Amino acid sequence: MLLGCHTDITHRIRNYYGCLNNILSVLGKGKNEITAVHLVRTYYVPILTYGSEIWRITESEKRSLNVLWNNTFKKIFNCCWRESPFSLQFYTGCLLMYLIIEQRKALFYRRVLKSSNVILQTLLSLKRRFVNSLTSVYSIRSLHDSHSAIKQCIWKHNVLSAVNSGHLSLSQLCFFLFLLFYCYLNVLCFEVCIFTVLCCFYA
After folding, report:
1. Is residue 124 part of a domain?
2. Does 20 share its domain with 89?
3. Which domain holds residue 104?
4. Which residues of the chain have pLDDT under 70?
5. pLDDT tens for each residue of 146-186
6. Which of 5, 19, 27, 168 sees the fewest Cβ atoms within 10 Å?
7. Residue 70: per-residue pLDDT
8. 134 in any annotated domain
9. Are residue 143 and residue 87 in the same domain, yes or no?
10. pLDDT for the residue numbered 62
11. Quick one: pLDDT at residue 87?
């Protein structure tokens, strides 16, 4: 798996595609898309990204991971074949793949920081510049913050990046927040919210 300082993840990508196809074949044509996304996020993304906290991968492999994640949503929802599936990822509460990996790194360094192991503390001090860069990019106040606070910072970065890049307009964001407000009040169920949003974008 390790070639010098480089981490070869091509076999993981192949295994992931195999697992995704197995899920889709078991669920069948009448599948519940939200269930399929939940299964992928719960069982196969952690396997794919295991050890990603210390990955050193090439730009080509980063693109392969992004393509893999985009293809996941295109296959599950059977749409967006010629466009970005970002809206699907956003409205199902999923980060982009590179942000999933960055979040794992931030939470890993948080655990190391709270550890009493001298060796781990020494290794963290050697990575201090990278850790500072990580917290700065995602506006994380401190790695001493809670898990949820760090995740919120990365999700906020995801939303702002989407708005700035044009993947998500402010009107779309407001509409989604409006639906979530009703969902919170138990007026609409979450799946109805998702279905309504998808109909608006892909009708």
Report:
1. yes
2. yes
3. 95-147
4. 1-6, 168-203
5. 999 999 899 888 888 887 877 766 666 666 666 555 555 55
6. 5
7. 93
8. yes
9. no
10. 85
11. 81
Q: What is the pLDDT of residue 182?
A: 56
Q: Rounded to 10 degrees, what is the CA torsion of 5, 8, 12, 14?
A: 170
Calculate the alpha carbon distances from 165 to 147, 157, 158, 183 in Å. 27, 12, 11, 28
Q: How many domains does the chain have?
A: 2
3-state SS string for the chain = CEECCEECCHHHHHHHHHHHHHHHHHHCCCCCHHHHHHHHHHHHHHHHCCCHHHCCCCHHHHHHHHHHHHHHHHHHHCCCCCCCCHHHHHHCCCCCHHHHHHHHHHHHHHHHHHCCCHHHHHHHHHCHHHHHHHHHHCCCCCCCCCHHHHHHHHHHHHHHHHHHHCCCCHHHHHHHHHHHHHHHCCCCCHHHHHHHHHHHHHC
Q: What is the C-alpha separation between 140 and 150, in angstroms, rounded?
A: 6
Are the C-beta atoms of residues 118 and 67 closer than 8 Å to each other?
no
Asked whether residue 129 is domain-assigned, the answer is yes
**Tokens representing 16?**
């992931």
Give yes or no: residues 33 and 45 share one domain. Answer: yes
Whether residues 6 and 80 fall in one domain:
yes
Please state the separation of Cα 14 from the chain's center in Å.
19
Partners of 3 in the beta sheet?
Answer: 6
Residues 116 and 71 occupy one common structural domain: no
